[in-house]
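Incident log, structure service

09:12 report received: a user says their structure output differs between two submissions of the same chain.
09:20 pulled the input from the user's history:
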Amino acid sequence: MSSPVVHAFFMGRALASAIAEQAEQAMTETLSDLGRFDAEQRENLRNFTEDVMARVQQQEAAVSQGPASSGFGATASPSNPQDLQATIDNLRAEIAQVRSTLQQYRASLN
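09:34 re-ran on a clean worker, output below:
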């Protein structure tokens, strides 16, 4: 074997080894970033869920402390349509607010 052929062989082998190390490092960093992103999104979702549950508990407490004929469910009196309409309007506003918050949350994920 001639010296240039042996030199080319070892150079190719060293080049392949270096490329494999670089690819391994890039893959490791990518997977690490993906794992970090997944953990952050899970934490954000957990915080969002806790916030929603806190609001639910707060609203349930407010309803349970209010008068029995507050306009919710079977306790609504059909003789007072103004209270019923106000309740419906409030619920629609709350739904719109929740949709807006959800859209903002989804936009922050992208």
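09:41 both user submissions now match this output. Likely a transient worker issue. Closing.
09:42 reviewer note: Helices lie at 3-65, 81-109. Confidence is low (pLDDT under 50) at residues 69-77.
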